[in-house]
Amino acid sequence: MSPKGSTHTPGPSRISVPATSIAPALTRASLRSLGPALGERRLQDLLLLATEVVTNAVRHATSGGDDVEVLVDVQRERVRLEVRDPGPGFEPRATPDPSAWPDPDAGGWGLYLVERLAERWGVERRPGGTVVWFELDLDPS
């Protein structure tokens, strides 16, 4: 990956991690090298959101033993991360009303965090699985 401020924009990088509890840690380890291109604040946002989305993919993938694919694409103005799993997908729901926020004692915070920190995100059903993606805008400096 190119240092922050470089005119070269690297192409997308793809990693495949086993759909097991180790997947989020493997994903974070792969993404840490993007620090110079993203800056510390956006790197931390990326690591947090990637952890949440990969954890959901592992939790909801229906076929045991399948891998979770992670695609990250860093451009000058944004970073996009996609996580693909073989699961059936879901319909995301917005949670602007504080009464609909997740229970602090229960799960369900992953997509809430994505919704709050990412500039754009979505869920797509594609052949062979589901893709959850998000984008973070980068500082133009």
Number of strands: 5
Largest sheet, if any? Answer: 5 strands, antiparallel
Q: Span between N and C termini?
A: 17 Å
**CATH architecture name:** 2-Layer Sandwich
Mean pLDDT: 81
The neighbouring-strand order within the major sheet is: 1-2-3-5-4
Q: Which stretches are low in confidence, meaning pLDDT under 50 for 5 or more residues running? A: 1-9
Could you please say which CATH topology applies here? Answer: Heat Shock Protein 90
Order of helices and strands: EHHHEEHEE
Identify the overall geometry.
Answer: globular
Please tell me how large the radius of gyration is: 15 Å
Q: Roughly what fraction of the amino acids lie in strands? A: 25-35%
Assign the structural class, choosing from mainly alpha, mainly beta, alpha/beta, alpha+beta, or little secondary structure: alpha+beta
Q: What is the level 1 CATH name?
A: Alpha Beta
Q: How helix-rich are the residues, as a percent range?
A: 25-40%
What is the number of domains?
1
By DSSP (H or I, 4+ residues per run), the number of helices equals 4
